[in-house]
């Protein structure tokens, strides 16, 4: 009995550490509410900014439906090889103007690293929570 309780406790601890390390998509959805005025992540509908459905792994400035609206800075970043992997998204979400100088996004960035990890987990989640 004690062995089963210890095993269950270790499994629960390992799962919670893994979620924290990779972010929590449910918490990320809550943080993403700050982005929803300009971006959609659950559908491919563009708003003021491009949709973010499938953004992880996509080259910057290449969402087909938004091609005519990207800033030159974002198009150039994509042409130079910027791909929205987790590391690049984290840097961009922390400071969009620093990561892609001259881009049009008015958002100044997220200061909390957990919020950034959670938003990335939300963007990666399919289906969205």
What report would you give on this structure?
The protein has 6 helices and no strands. The protein is mostly helical. The longest helix has 21 residues, at 2-22. Residues 4-20 have low confidence and may be disordered.
Helices and strands, in order, run as HHHHHH
- What percentage of residues falls in helices of 4 or more residues? 40-55%
Quaternary class: single chain
Poorly predicted runs:
4-20
Spell out the blueprint of helices and strands.
Blueprint: H1 2-22, H2 25-32, H3 72-79, H4 86-94, H5 96-99, H6 113-124
Could you give a quick summary of the protein structure above?
48% of the residues lie in helices and 0% in strands. It has helices at residues 2-22, 25-32, 72-79, 86-94, 96-99, 113-124.
Structure keywords:
mainly alpha
């Amino acid at each position: 009995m004690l062995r089963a309780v210890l095993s269950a406790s270790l499994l629960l601890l390992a799962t919670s550490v893994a979620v924290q390390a990779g972010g929590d998509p449910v918490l990320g959805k809550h943080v993403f509410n700050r982005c929803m005025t300009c971006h959609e992540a659950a559908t491919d509908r563009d708003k003021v900014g491009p949709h973010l459905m499938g953004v992880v792994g996509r080259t910057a400035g290449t969402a087909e439906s938004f091609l005519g609206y990207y800033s030159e800075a974002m198009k150039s970043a994509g042409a130079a090889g910027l791909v929205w992997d987790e590391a690049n998204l984290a840097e961009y979400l922390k400071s969009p103007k620093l990561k892609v100088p001259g881009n049009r996004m008015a958002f100044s960035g997220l200061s909390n690293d957990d919020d950034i990890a959670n938003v990335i987990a939300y963007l990666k989640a399919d289906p969205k929570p």
